[in-house]
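Title: Prediction job returns without error message
Component: structure pipeline
Severity: low
Priority: P3
Assignee: unassigned

Description:
Job completed but the reporter wants confirmation the result is attached to the right record. Sequence as submitted:
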Amino acid sequence: MKNKIILLSGDPNSINSEIIYKTWKKLNNSQKKRIFLIANYNLIREQFKKLKYYIRIKKVKEISDTSTVKCLKIIDINFKFKDSFKTPKNATTKFIIKSLNLGHKLALKNDVTGLINCAIDKKLINKKGYGVTEYLASKCGLQDNSEAMLIYNNSLSVSPLTTHIDIKNISSKIVSKTIISKVNTINNWYKKVKKRKPKIGLLGLNPHNAEYRKNSEEKKIIIPSIRKMKNSNIDINGPLIADTVFIKDYKKYDVLVGMYHDQVLAPFKSIFKFDAINVTLGLKYLRVSPDHGTAKNLIKKNKANPRSLIKCINFIDRFKK
């Protein structure tokens, strides 16, 4: 059967099992039949038991097993966890890396529509704080920073030019090649998937665009990059001033591209809360994830909202083969 969806259980020390259960209860039979969860079977079983969640789960070896819609099918990552919600860091890292590697391998198959990973603490992947976006880009052999993190909402999407790096290192990463490459990736995705050319706004780096001083990144790098992209028939405007664009001008655009993570994600989440999904553009397959973190403070409190994961599955459904 085609149109399979690979779902990674993500970080064991999280609200993920609660999110997965609540999402499963909302899915239709067609979606349930196509989903394969990469997880530790015993861990999921124990977490569901502690949370008093009762659904049938089934251990499978291959994604060829689509015999039933009544069970949540689990491709088992064999690990021994002593405490179901307090797994040691080293074991958790090994489990997550194994899960990501298997998910990547399966996502490359022709009968898979896409890959979804539940929340993962990025410190478990890389000491520098690089996240799943960068890890999967590396697995796909992307060396030119052409992948793009798109936080997608039907009304507006945002994309940070740099992702999980310290503020002090951002300026050195703002180069014309990266700006043009990532904007091209976003533009091409909209034309291919959404069947239209997007209107893109590019933010400046400095407060008030550094008043356009001659030695500013806006004057030296961002404005020349915008000029080149306009000449390539990309509908782009900027540099926009970051401290005012999210008041109302954001409504003029399909996508706002910022220079760094919090410049666009903080105001976006203030407007849309968690009504969005994280889409990685430029990979060899479709990868999305919920737009929230591990929320360790909510573990076992039955307060986690599954809306973003449900949106991920519904989004992938649009791309049935």
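Comment from assignee: result matches the submitted record. Residues 89-107 form the longest helix (19 residues).
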